[in-house]
Amino acid sequence: MKNRYVSILLLMMSLISFSSFAQTENEDPLLGLPGDDLDLYAVLDLFQKSKTIEAFEKSLNEEKAGIVNLDLNNDGKVDFIKVETKKDGDNFLFILQDPISEKETQDVAVITVSKDAEGKVTLQIIGDEKLYGKDYVVEPLTEAIESVTSNPAYVGKDPVTVNVQGTTEIVVVQSAPVVQYVYSPAYVPYYPPYYYRYYPPYWRGIAVISIDIYRHNHYYHHSHYHGGHGNTNVIIHNHNSYNRYNNNTRNSSRTVNNNINNGNFKTSGQRGSRPSTTQTGRATNGSASNRASTSNRASSTNRATKSPSTVNRSAYPSSSNRSSASRSMGSHSSSSASRASAGRASASRGGGGRRRH
Questions:
Q1: How much is the pLDDT for 72?
Q2: Which structural domain range is residue 64 located in?
Q3: Fewest CB atoms within 10 Å of the CB: 86, 227, 242, 288?
C-alpha cells in the first residue's frame, strides 16, 4: 500500500513538472518594458473572437478578462485602453490608445487588417516601439508546427526526453467574426467617446497584479500565434498604412518616454509591481493583517513616546475611565504618586498649602 502511494505521488509530481515545463516553453522572456503588462498574443486572440470593434474594446477592458495590466500613468491602477480606427480602402488600422492624462495619450499597439488583390486577408498586431522594443510583431499561425524534443543540446547524465508537442491548430483569418464584420456591408466605423477620467460604466481601475501571475494567466494564448520581439520570420504585411500612421498620426507621451528612460515605472514589466494575494484575483494595496500590524506598531510607538496627558482623549471617554487607567499604572507610577502626596502633606504641615475649613 505504501508503494502505491509513493507511485501516485511520483506520477503527480511528473505531471506538475511537465505542465510547468510546457508553460515555460510557451513564454517569451520579459522585455523589461511596460509592454510586459499587456500581452499582445492575448489581445489578438480576443480581437479575432469579437463580433464588433466596440465589443472588442469592452471585452479588452473588462476585469474578468484580465488582459490589461498596464499602468502608464503610474498611479498603481490598471489603465483603460480605447480603440481608434483608421481605414484606407481595404486596409484597417485599429489603434490601442492609453489616455494617461488630460493632455497626453500614448499609443500602445496597432492591429492591422488588410486584404490583397486576390482577396487574402492578413492580420497582425504591432507593439509600440517605446513599450515593446523594435519590431515586436505577432500574427496568427497559418501552418501547423511540428513537435520538438526539449533541450536537445543537453549532454548531461539526465537528459530530458519529453517531447513538446507541436500545435495543429491554425487560424483562418478570413473566418474570424471581426474580420467578416469589417468587410461586410453591415460595418459601421466605431469612434470611442472616452477620454481621460471619462470611462464607460463597466470599467473601474483595479490594482496591477504581479508579472508572474499575469503571465501564468495568459501564456496559453501563445500557442496559436507566433512572432514577438526580434522575430525575423515575421514582417509587417500592411506596411504602407502602418508607415503612414507611424510618421503622421502616432501618439507618443513625453511623460511615458521620460518614465521609461529614467526607470520610474513601478509596473510588473519593470519588476516593481506589488505582489498579488491570489492566483486569479487582483492585487490589493495591503492585506488586513498588514494594516493591523502597522496599526499596532503605531499604537505601541504612541504609547511609548507620549505621556498619559497627551494621549488622544477619545481613548478615555469619561473621567472614571481616566481614574481607572491611573489606578492601573505600574508600581513605579504609584510610588511616585505616593512620594508626591507625602511631599504636599509635608508642605501643608509647614504652613503652606490650603487652609482647613
A1: 95
A2: 30-151+161-270
A3: 288
